[in-house]
Each structure stands twice: as structure tokens, then as C-alpha cells.
Amino acid sequence: MNTANVAGDAIIQRIAIKAPAGRIFKALTDPRELLKWWTAEGKFHATHVESDPRRGGKWMMRVKGSGGTEITVAGEYRTIEPPRLLIYTWIREEDSVETHVRWDLEEREGVTHVCVTHSGLTSQSLRVRNSGWPLIVCLLQIYVQDQIASESKARPDFRLPTASRWDVPRAVADGGGGTIIATVEVAAPPARVFHALTSNEVERWWGHPDFYRMTDWSADLRVTGQWSVVVRFADGNTNSGSGEFAEIDDIDEPRKLVMTRRFEKHPLLGSRETTITYRLDPVATGTRLTVRDEGFIGRSEAAYGNAEHWERVLGWLKAYLSSTTATEEDSANGHS
After folding, report:
1. 5-152 in CATH: which number?
2. Sequence-distant (≥ 6) Cβ neighbours of residue 223 within 8 angstroms
3. Is the pTM of this model over 0.85?
């Protein structure tokens, strides 16, 4: 998980969420909603929440960790200005040290830019919470966007009616930490997904007539091997991308692929190199693909923009593999 920015005695974590600020503010203050989303499978989950969201109102949360240990955190709301500002104190029961949490929400064109600042921390607390807040804001993003999709009944083309929480492509950007994490489940085994990511199949699925298409794919699939591609945009312009394979764990039963990437020109990154890690985990329905794209420190706008684009790319991949896997299965069964 990403680490947050540290400034003095404070941790600062930012995220962009495609949701109204008011909807996010409600998720941050409504005890029923806090109980639903303040949970990370296999790590911790909220067992009891109380919240009186008004100036001087109290809040309290009990959280149980994976080892069964339960902690209690409580505090008082100091500033309530929905939907843009929320400030409250934060006191862990075991140490009684008062710290402060501030949420700033700025909505622009359907996207809310969220910044959470946890201040008044000791050096030990900084180390403990430096990896915690990126996970919390990711859980918030997933929950709010799931709720909006459920309420509106909206479904992207690549989402199945019986989709699990992993079935829809998702991406989260840590602008300060310079990292994007994206994930999706696809109906194909890891080796099939690996081939689609590393062969000239890239030219078949990575792109859309309204955006761009990939051409001239070339790859020397070995550690230190080079790869390259030409991006041809709908307006006729082109851009060259290239990089190196840094880690390939097993081509026959692939679980991890690491590669660098840079473009000849990029409106927000220039020619800066990023590192992409693909993890391919077999699941009952096929493969859970997790993408980690690193190298955006100091380029938070590029991180948020590329996070949104990763969702689109994984949607293209999912749709492509769903259709080609079905065709391959039909061929194997002797169907025309």
C-alpha cells in the first residue's frame, strides 16, 4: 500500500473520487455508513460506530484487527461545514493522546478532490499511520463509488450483472506518493492475461477508435529486454512508448511482471519514466489483475488522470478477454 506525505507532525493523504462532495461528507459522518466502509478484508473491520456530526458532538469507533485485538478511537467534532470541511479530534483509548483529523473536499466537474490531514502525531505514530491513511481513503473511494453505481443502476459495458466488488475496473491515485493502483477480475487464466499484456495482442485490445490505438508492438520478453509501441491517436498524431522488462517471474505460470515505461511526449509527464507492476492472482472466476504504476511524485495531476485512464484500459482488457476466451472455448468444443 502507498505511503502518505509527511509534513512535520502531520500525515497528508489526497485522493480524487468521482462522486459529489455531499455524498462523501455523508460517508465520513453517518455512523451506519462508517460501519460499512471502514473495513479492509483480512486486516481490520469496524465493529461499532457512534457519531453526532455537529460542532461539539462526539464520535467513537471500535475496530477489531485481524489478530482479534480491538481498539477504540474517539473524539469531538470541532468544525462541521458540509460538504467542504470536517475537523475532529482523534484519541486512541490506550494512549489518550489527542490528535486532529481534517478533511477538505473540493468538488470540480463531477470529481471531488479529497485531502485528509492527520496532525499532532508523534514520530512513532507517523510511522504507524503512514501506510494506514492511503488504505482508508481507498476504502472510502470504493464504497462511495459502489453506492452511486448501485443507486443509479449504472453499469459500464464491461461489468456483468452479477459483478463482485472486484469485477469492475477500479483505480486509486496517491498523488503525494506518486503511485496508482488499479485492479479488475477477468474471465481468463493468468497465462492468458499475461500473453495479452506482453504480445502483439496489445494492438487488438489496448485502445478505442474514439481515443487511440496501439501499433507496431515489439517486445524482447526477458529481463532487461526492451519493448516499444506506437500510439496512433484518432486525430492522426502519434506518440512512441518504450521501456524495459525488469522482472518476469515465470512465463509458463506468470504471477508477476515488472516493466518500465516512458513516452516520447506526454502532456503532464513529459518523458518521465514510470514503473508498472502487474500481479496476476488466480481466482475462481479467472484472474485478479492488480496494476501498480509508480513514478508520479510531484505530478499529482498526472497521477489522477492516469488512474482514471487505467480504469478505461482494464475495461478494454476485460471486454477483450471475455470475448476471445468464449470464442476459444467454442472452438475447442467444436462449435463454429
Report:
1. 3.30.530.20
2. 245, 246, 247, 248
3. no
